[in-house]
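User: We ran a pulldown and think these components assemble together. Before we commit to crystallization trials, I'd like a predicted model of the whole complex to look at. Sequences follow.
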Amino acid sequence: MNPSTRSPLTWAVHVSVLLLVVLWTMPTAGLLISSLRDKDQLAVSGWWTALATSSRNSVARAPSADSQVERDGKFVISGNFLGGQPGQVSAFGFSSREPAKFKPGETAELNDGERLTVQEDGSFEIVSDKRMEGSRGQRIFFTSATPPRFTLENYGEVLSAEGIGRSFINSLTVAVPSTVIPILIAAFAAYALAWMPFPGRAILLAVVVGLLVVPLQMSLIPLLKLYNGVGAFFGVPAKTYMGIWLAHTGFGLPLAIYLLRNYMAGLPREIMESARVDGASDFDIFVKIILPLSFPALASFAIFQFLWTWNDLLVAIVFLGTGQDQLVLTGRLVNLLGSRGGNWEILTASAFITIVVPLIVFFALQRYLVRGLLAGSVKGG
Amino acid sequence: MQLVAAILMMIAGVLACAAYFWSTNFILDWIFPSKGLSGAAASRNLRITNAIRPWLFLAPALFALTIYLIYPVIQSAILSLHDRGGLNFVGLRNYVWMINDGEFRQSIFNNFLWLLVVPALSTFFGLIIAALTDRIWWGNIAKTLIFMPMAISFVGAAVIWKFIYDYRAEGSEQIGLLNAIVVAFGGLPEAWITLPFWNNFFLMVILIWIQTGFAMVILSAALRGIPEETIEAAVIDGANGWQIFFKIMVPQIWGTIAVVWTTITILVLKVFDIVLAMTNGQWQSQVLANLMFDWMFRGGGDFGRGASIAVVIMVLVIPIMIWNIRNATKEMGGR
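Assistant: Here's a predicted model for the assembly, 716 residues in total across the polymer chains.
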């Protein structure tokens, strides 16, 4: 480090980077923390209060008069409205105007001569001298303090009930071949473009570079028509995994060919020439020499393509359909946003499941990812 | 059960692809053998195989590129001149409809906002962060964390940010971070993503959040490529930090900045997931890509109008395409 920059300025740099990092990480952190919180707490308090004891106001209804028991000549309805969950009642009341009039342990006189007592642990008793009537139970308002609670329940719920588990497999079925097939095809094409002389090579390269920027949207309608036509012709469904693999292959190829060609063109010529002198054919050279040497470039493209196909929504909902059995994770998440928009415990847990695989890939293989980015964008930089 | 079927399908698909390359090359070598033949015949066969083999290697790629990218571009252009079913020629009527359609004009306007703001801010933040993190010992950790949103899907990011923008009625405790901050400073909570015009910016923040890491990685590599001597010379001449950064470093990586800028610009034109998941174009936040998707399926689908919107997106990309090709051919000429 240059000594002239070791000054208050260095501190300013540290602080501002820290600030930026916090700014960039907090959204994801908030999602993760929220997905692990108890769903009732999640709905009433911000995730940044997750470690604090939260107090909430709620209302419970005592069982109806049917459940009263006679004891010592008095009639008693009892129960516990915390239902065994952790928490402490700090106040209670019986009318919505004064929901926190009484302290736990005190006895409240209800309007018709009944007496209500609520304990700290949430157990309550309504005692009356005469037999109670009415089919609806007494409403009890209470304020309870709940200690922070972290749980995997939200995950259990979305995995079993919301079809996320199924979609997870669908996403995997889409993403893995959609990553491997284009690499294979692009590697051969890139080798041909880099090392095999043939007429029209320069034009083909220019075409590939031009296709890099073609928006996916252009392809949707014609391909949809084509798929429907092919499907009808062969009597097979138009929306198949095969179809989506090929679509992802087609869309990923320009970048793959471009990246791999640039990498392969940079390999030393002598290796190939000496192999050829030894009698190796182009196919042998490619499989035995070029492929192993190109591993870094192949890996970086593989990561890109995997992230892209895993995270893709457009191609999947157009070419795989939106039926319950075919939805990929991203599509499922969009549906949940529509149908369960207010249920944050479901949304946060589902969202985290969809991003956990790319995050693992990202953190494990980050170095290759960066290398691939650099090879593609700033050559000779 | 489904898992087994899926795995079998995957293996079959990948194997079929590998089998193509292996078998075609085997057949080629079998028809025109070059080993074990006398000189003239061997060299003749070698010449033939050398002329054919590149095309064997290229065939699947060319096939896929043609079917999935070239043919659709032409077909979309043709379809945009047809009616909703794609059968009857209607001339430029779809384009006339487009110009007169309020929603389309709204989308174009919003798209220009996106194009102005997102690439600029992503590149700007990327550049600043790259410059700052290169100077500190934990810079790589910081970079990883800022780069991380790259791995998150647009839909996942939309959920993350929808949670941040979440709105609860005034008086109740806010669970959305933004409203909580606003309320803490004495403001009133807002339903951010339903505010016409301003909601565009709240959606853009998501894409900037995702793309800054990309810009940072590339620009940071470019900054490192600047020769030490130029910076040292500037230091000796008494330049301060800002001057070094903006007058010495930035001009030297101008080419890279342009690459990052255009890459994000292309992405902005294509992005529809964020808008779909956050507002689906309601509250005047529609953009071209989502509008096009909308018309593909709205009322059973209007392929003519959908295709004409796609053509507009394509036209917006063409200048970048030409610039790209020119740059690439220039570079390859030097090899």
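Residues 5 and 11 of chain B are 10 Å apart (CA to CA). That may be worth checking against your pulldown data before setting up trials.

User: Thanks, that helps.
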